Amino acid sequence: MESTFIDRRPGSQDVCIAFSARDTAKGKFTFYSILSSLPAHVIFVNDFSNGWYLNGTPEFGDEAGLLNWLVEKIDSLKTFSGRVFTLGSSMGAYAALKYGSLLGADRIMALGPESELCIPLGRSVTSLQSIPEGAGNIASLPFKVPQDVLVLSGNNDIVDFYCACQLKAANPLLGVYLITNRTHVVAKYIDGQFGLSKVVNSFFMNGDTTFLIQAETSTTIDVVRATAIKKFNEILAIQKTVCLGDSDAIITVANEIPAWSMPQYFSALISEKQGDLGACEYFLQRALAVHPLLGRARLKMAQIQFKARRYRECVDLLEDTPASGYTQKIGELLSEAYLNLGNTQKACSALNRLDLASVDSAAADRIAHKLASLQAPYSNVISKPFEQ
Questions:
Q1: Residue that finishes a domain, picked among 287, 307, 327
Q2: b/e string for 124-148 if b means 16 or more Cβ within 10 A?
Q3: How many domains is the chain built from?
Q4: C-beta separation of 40 from 107 below 8 A
């Protein structure tokens, strides 16, 4: 079968089911190398249709088919005293929680799960056309041992953050932790900091979560305020509008959790819309203090500095932007700031750093024309402030 693979390990008593993440190719399996040293039989599962395991996998056709097959294989592999573990990341994390509940798993590790499918801006909404009413929400699922369910999500992915808060609110005994200022792929952070294979092995075999002592984590918050942050983020991303309806709740969260950059940034946008540029800069400074690479906060601060004709501050903030965060808006704004400082050479360098193949054709043409005019012999360019 191309959606499953069983790695039988002689002498093992336990069974681990590893659910693959979205976009894992047919016949391939997430965590294959990570679990290579786990002293347990491993059943790898991959819903290569990206159907979020709602219908099992394409080779089973429905959830019951996959569930029955897993029960049969677990019974054939596990000893009488053996345990069952489930593991998953992203789409696989949803399955690890859902099937872990249905199978009565002894320990579950879910990395970046969506507890509610098809939330705006979530990953599942890009894969699923529709789902049966109520079928996609697993926040209230029962677990055999809630204390042995470990959920890790990045709090700068607002959908993951909201779902983590949902899970914790529905079952306070779950071990739900938010990795501070990280986005969706928390597995990469854990692997880089602690070694994901070591973390997985220690948790499944011994219930060990001591790595969390050194991890940068923050607590979940109540669902009401989490919903306010989720709603603000959706309106900002979809409608390109700053909504003031829940501003008090968001600013309160920003003040209660100063190490979390995203509510600092949201509070800055709220303050700007309210006309309080001093508060706007204050929140942006706090955001960048804890997360210097938060590109949106960096750009917004630079835009404020530019409009205030504080060009040197603008340049100092933007010129060390790493390549991974050097966007079209940052490059063009930096170029204009250099022009206002009278440095045409640096203005050209700022534009030359941009990858024109990654921007739309109109922007690429505009940037190329600008570069040509700046580089023309004896150019007498009169700078016009860049409009955002």
A1: 287
A2: beebbeebeeeebbbbebebeeeeb
A3: 3
A4: no
Query: Hey, is 236 helix, strand or coil?
Result: helix
Token pair 């590109």: residue: 295
Query: What does the chain come to in residues?
Result: 388
**Same domain for 300 and 283?**
no
Phi, psi of 104 (to 5 degrees): 65, 45
How far CA 228 is from CA of 152, 237, 248, 261, in Å, comes to 21, 14, 10, 16
Q: Which two tokens stand for residue 90?
A: 């992203």
What CATH number is associated with residue 322?
1.25.40
Residue by residue, DSSP assigns 338-363 as: HHHTT-HHHHHHHHHTS-GGGS-HHH
Of 200, 218, 236, the residue that ends a domain is: 218
Whether this model's pTM surpasses 0.85: yes
- For the stretch 169-204, pLDDT in tens is 999 999 999 999 999 999 999 999 999 999 999 999
